[in-house]
Structures are given as C-alpha cells and as structure tokens.
C-alpha cells in the first residue's frame, strides 16, 4: 500500500440540518459543486445566515453561498445571495455551478425539483477578479423560467423551450474547452417518465441544442457529462461522453394529472429498484450528433471506429431513444441494486469509466463495481475490493488524475468512514489499491474537483465531517497532494 499523505482540511460552513428531513448539500448529481478555474477554486452550497443560527424552530431559510480561494491558499472568500431564500425540504433542490471559459462568467442554478428554472450569472471576468472585488455586486438577480439571450419559442418534441424551463430537475454544467462554451443540461418530467435536454452558453447568450435523451415509459438518469482530456497520443480529444441508467415507469393513481406532485416524494413506486441497464453514447461535435458507445450484453466487444451509425441529431430534432442501436453496455435487470446518477469519467486514451453497483455477482451481495470501456478491448466490469456492499447507500466518485490514474472516493452507507482507492494506468486499471481510509465522515455523497485533479494533480474532495461533540456537521474540503 502506498498511502496518500494526510489531507489539508478547510471548512466552508455548518451543514444545515435543523428542522429538515432531507440533506440539501452533497449529492453526486452536483457535478461541479467544487471546481477549479484559472488558479481559483470555487465551491457552492446552501447554508444559514449567521443571524439565523440562533433562531427558533421556525428558522428554515437557507441561502446560496459561493466560496472562492486563490490556490494554494486555505482562505475562502464567500458571497452570500441573501435575495433568495430556499425553504423546500427536498434533497433534489441543490446548487449547481458552471464557469464559461470564453468570458469567465459564473453560472448558478438552484432550488429545482420539477419546478421553474432558478438561475443567475455574473458579469464577464468575475471568476478571476481580485479578492477585494469579489462580492455580490458581480452577479445579477435570480432569473426564473428563462436564460440570457435564449429564444424560448423554439420547440422540441412539440414542447416549447419555455415549457421545458418550467419543469427543471438535476441541472448540470460542463465547460467545453474546444469551443470555449459552457454546456447546460437538465431533466424534465418525473421519475421514470422524463427527458434530458442540452443548451450552450457563449458570450452572453444561451442556445438550445435539443433533447439528446428521450425516455419512453422510462427516464434516463445520467452518471454525468464528461469531456475526454487532451492527449497527444489519442484521437479522442474533446469527445463528449454520457453514461446513464434507465428507470422504468410504474403508473400510480393520478400520475397523469398535470397537478400531480406525488412523484416528488423521496420514495415511491418509481424508486431506484426500477433502475436497469448501463448505457453509453458520445458526441464529437459538442452534443449535436450522437453515436452509441455500448456493446449489448456487457461482454467485451471491440470498439467501433468512427463512421458507425449516428443515433441522434439534435439539429433535426432526433434524440437518443431506449431503442437506439449500440447504447447498452451492460444489461442489468430491475431489482439488481443499480444506482442512478453515481459517477463517470474519461481518461486520456478515451477510456470510459463508470462507478455504480449491482448484486449480480458475489453471491447476490450488492457490490460497488468499476465498469470500464477499454479503447481496444471494449466494456468490462470488476468488483471493487476493500469496501462493503452499497445497496441503497450513498454514492461515490471516480476521477482521473494528471498522471492518468483513477481514484475512487467512496463513503460508507452506514458508518462514518470515507475510503479512497487507486487504480493505476500502469495496471490498465485492473488493480485497486487502498490508499486512504479514515473515520469521522457521516454518510454523504463526496464530490471531487475533477478540473483540479487534472491540472494540479491534487485530489480535492468536498464532503461532510464531524466537527466535535455537540458542534454539528461541517462542509469540509480535503486536499490530497498526489
């Protein structure tokens, strides 16, 4: 074992739990809630105002916080947006962060679960202003059900863009380095019955690309959107990859009522037990046209070369469907423990890595697995050692380092333990080394700054830690130099 050095720790805030059943920070679908750009690291989260901390039982208002530090400093400077109070006790309603490389604007979305878009953005250059100018005046007010410069009368599948913006869940941002644009995606519809859509932002204006994933009596739950990192030895540079599981829909009384809200419950007939299959698709033009990245049955199949059949063209309003060719990487049945929205990454050679779990091996015990598409040998899967089963447990992260190695950051589903595994590029990601494990971390989805891991070879993990007896739970950043 070659252990990681002890991490540097910094604290962002107290994690708000008062009078709430659902956590509101720390979910795997917050793709870039911690993100490095131009030498600054950013983190977004909800917290209470200091003046509310000693309030009575009625105090349930939370506010979007955006923290920034100039690396490698340990000092965070935090902007609090006091003009929007979050009150819904729903774990879906998280904060998301994106930074556009063309103009250094910062973009935030927050407080969504099948609800109108809530969004704000900064002035150009805000991401890199000096510390003395880092304040709320850099940002506009909350925009609802609209985006800057967007034509909302466009249609996709007989729905206007304005209607899509009125039904938002799970937004994510992703910078596109080859075009200097910022990608935005979100789901519309409900659990088991929804679609995913794509927008791009550049120089003050959003453009609707189209609906890239369309469900049919199901909905896709993506592990993320990833861009293959630049490599002089690979022709996969700037390939946009998404992987996902499907959730089959189970009708219930009133499901087709436009005013129905039963689907917003944290559990119900359309829960994770209906997840099935791991699927994959990729785009080489920033999300307009898409090709299948699977290999039906989950067996190792040779990777197809460029020129395979296009399965979606958003410029022609065609989408990836559950019946599209060559999207299924692994056929995993419902009830097999498959999680939605866990994690994915792409390595320097274009290999695709998915972290998820199932109970199809090891005597029926649910185990975390590394599902991997090797550029030469196709899809394969391996059980992760050193960690317990994770049936219904918190989600982990997989990320690639500057050296090309993989790191798996894994919470325990019941105990206060955080574990990090390493799979080296030299071993072709086939050997999993336990490099760090420590107590004091309540079960939560850890988040990884994948941009910093690629640029600085520092593994920054946003998670929750115990502050001490009677002191609550803290939002904490762990920095591991590799």
Based on secondary structure, the structural category is mainly beta
Count of runs of 4 or more consecutive helical residues: 2
Helix content: under 10%
Main pleated sheet: 6 strands, antiparallel
**Percentage of residues in DSSP E strands:** 35-45%
Q: Layout of SSEs?
A:
Blueprint: E1 8-14, E2 34-37, E3 40-47, E4 63-70, E5 77-80, E6 95-100, E7 105-110, E8 118-121, E9 143-144, E10 155-156, E11 159-160, H1 161-164, E12 169-176, E13 181-190, E14 193-202, E15 205-214, E16 218-227, E17 240-248, E18 275-283, E19 289-292, E20 310-313, E21 328-330, E22 343-346, E23 352-358, E24 367-374, E25 378-383, E26 397-400, E27 406-411, E28 417-423, E29 432-439, E30 447-448, H2 450-456, E31 458-466, E32 473-481
Antiparallel strand pairs: 1-32, 2-3, 3-4, 4-5, 6-7, 7-8, 8-9, 10-11, 12-13, 13-14, 14-15, 16-17, 17-18, 18-19, 18-21, 19-20, 22-23, 23-24, 24-25, 26-27, 27-28, 28-29, 30-31, 31-32
């Amino acid at each position: 074992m070659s252990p990681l050095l002890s991490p540097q720790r910094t604290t962002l805030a107290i994690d708000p739990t008062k009078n709430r059943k659902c956590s509101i920070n720390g979910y795997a679908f917050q793709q870039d809630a911690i993100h490095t750009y131009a030498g600054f690291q950013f983190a977004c989260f909800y917290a209470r105002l200091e003046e509310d901390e000693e309030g009575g039982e009625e105090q349930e208002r939370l506010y979007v916080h955006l923290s920034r530090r100039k690396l490698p400093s340990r000092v965070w400077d935090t902007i609090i947006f006091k003009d929007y109070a979050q009150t819904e006790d729903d774990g879906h309603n998280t904060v998301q962060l994106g930074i556009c490389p063309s103009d250094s604007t910062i973009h935030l979305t927050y407080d969504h679960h099948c609800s109108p878009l809530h969004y704000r953005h900064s002035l150009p250059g805000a991401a890199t202003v000096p510390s003395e100018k880092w304040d709320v005046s850099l940002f506009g007010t909350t925009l609802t059900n609209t985006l800057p410069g967007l034509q909302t009368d466009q249609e996709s599948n007989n729905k206007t863009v304005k209607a899509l913006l009125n039904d938002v869940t799970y937004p994510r941002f992703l910078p596109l380095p080859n075009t200097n644009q910022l990608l935005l995606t979100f789901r519309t519809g409900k659990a088991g019955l929804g679609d995913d859509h794509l927008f791009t932002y550049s120089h003050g204006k959003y453009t609707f690309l189209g609906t890239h994933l369309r469900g049919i009596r199901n909905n896709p739950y993506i592990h993320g959107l990833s861009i293959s990192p630049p490599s002089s030895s690979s022709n996969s540079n700037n390939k946009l990859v998404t992987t996902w599981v499907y959730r089959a829909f189970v009708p219930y009384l009133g499901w087709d009522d436009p005013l129905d809200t039963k689907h917003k419950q944290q559990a119900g007939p359309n829960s994770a037990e209906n997840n099935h299959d791991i699927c994959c698709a990729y785009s080489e033009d920033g999300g307009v046209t898409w090709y299948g990245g699977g290999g039906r049955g989950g067996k190792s199949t040779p990777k197809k070369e460029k020129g395979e059949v296009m399965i979606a063209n958003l410029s022609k309003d065609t989408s990836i469907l559950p019946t599209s060719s060559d999207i299924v990487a692994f056929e995993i049945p419902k009830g097999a423990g498959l999680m939605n929205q866990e994690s994915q990454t792409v390595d320097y050679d274009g290999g695709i890595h998915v972290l998820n779990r199932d109970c199809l091996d090891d005597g029926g015990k649910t185990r975390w697995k590394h599902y991997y598409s090797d550029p030469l040998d196709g899809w394969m899967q391996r059980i992760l050692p050193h960690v317990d089963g994770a049936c219904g447990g918190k989600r982990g992260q997989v990320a690639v380092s500057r050296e090309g190695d993989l790191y798996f950051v894994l919470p325990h589903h019941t105990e206060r333990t955080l574990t990090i595994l390493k799979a080296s590029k030299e071993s072709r990601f086939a050997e999993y080394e336990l490099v760090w494990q420590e107590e004091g971390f309540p079960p939560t989805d850890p988040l990884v700054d994948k941009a910093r891991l690629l640029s600085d070879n520092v593994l920054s993990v946003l998670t929750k830690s115990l502050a001490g007896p009677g002191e609550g739970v803290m939002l904490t950043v762990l920095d591991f130099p590799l």
